[in-house]
Amino acid sequence: MKRIFSCCILLMMVFLAQGQASYEYGFMPTINLTKKLQNDWKINAKLEARFPLEKGKFEENSSESFPYQLLDFVFTTTKKTGIHTSLGGGYGVRWRSGSYSHIFSQQFAYKHQWNQWRLAHRIASDQRIQRGEYTIWRLRYRWRTEIPLNGGRLDVGEWYLKIGNEYLQILQDSRYELEIRLSPMFGKLFPSKDKIEFGFQYRMGKLGLRTPKHNLWLQASWYSSW
Q1: For the chain, N or C: smaller number of CB within 10 Å?
Q2: Domain 2-225 grouped into CATH 3.30.70.360
Q3: Which positions ≥6 away from 226 have C-beta within 8 Å?
C-alpha cells in the first residue's frame, strides 16, 4: 500500500513540473441505488454530476468558472458467478454541453477478505459513442479496499475508510492516453444499510500527451438498497 501511494505522489510531482499542464477542480455528487434479484442477479442505477469550480493552466495563472459540466445516468446488471467473482454489463447516457452520448460497459469483479480489509478488484471496458465523433474505447483496472475504523468488522453505525486506485487506457481514433485515479473516502454505515461517503478523487489525465491534466473532485456519495 505504501509503495502505491509513493508512486502516485512521485507521478504527480513529475507532471506538475511540466509547464503546459492544466488543472481543474470542483464538486462531484453521486447517488447509487442497488436492487438484488433472484438467482444472484443484481441491478445498479447510478446518477453522477460534475460541477467544476475552476480550471486553467499552471504557467498562466488563469482560470474559468463553470456552473455545470456533465451528468451521467448509468444502469449496470451483474451476475454472481462464484463465491468471490461476478460478471456484468451496463448502459448509460452522458449529457454534456447540450449534447449526449451512449456508454456501453462490460466488467469482471473479484472480491475477497484479507484480515480486516475487504479488497475488491475490477477489470472493465466501455465504449462511448457520440454522433459526429470517433468512438472512445477505454480499458480500466481498479482496486478498492474498505477498512473499518472500529474493530475488525464493519458494524451498523460505524465509520470506515475506503481507498480506491484506478488505471484507464483510453483510445479514440489513433489518439492514445493514460489516466490514473486515486480516491480516499470516509464512509458510515447506517441501520437502514444505507451508506454515505465523502472525500475526494484525484485524476492525472492525458498522460502520454504534451499537455497532461490534473483534476481534483470533492466527492459526496449516497448508497442505498431496495
Answers
A1: C
A2: no
A3: 33, 34, 35
pLDDT band with cut points at 50, 70 and 90 for residue 73: very high
Cβ atoms of 78 and 86 closer than 8 Å: yes
Cell numbers that stand for 39 in this block: 438467482
Domain limits, the chain: 2-225
- 48 close to 19: Cβ distance less than 8 angstroms: no
Question: Model pTM?
Answer: 0.85
Strand segments, DSSP code E, in the chain are 22-36, 41-57, 70-80, 85-96, 99-114, 117-129, 136-148, 159-172, 175-189, 195-207, 213-225
- pLDDT tens-place string over residues 173-220: 999 999 999 999 999 999 988 999 999 999 999 887 778 889 999 999
Report the residue count for the chain: 226
Burial class (CB in 10 A: 0-12, 13-18, 19+), 160: buried
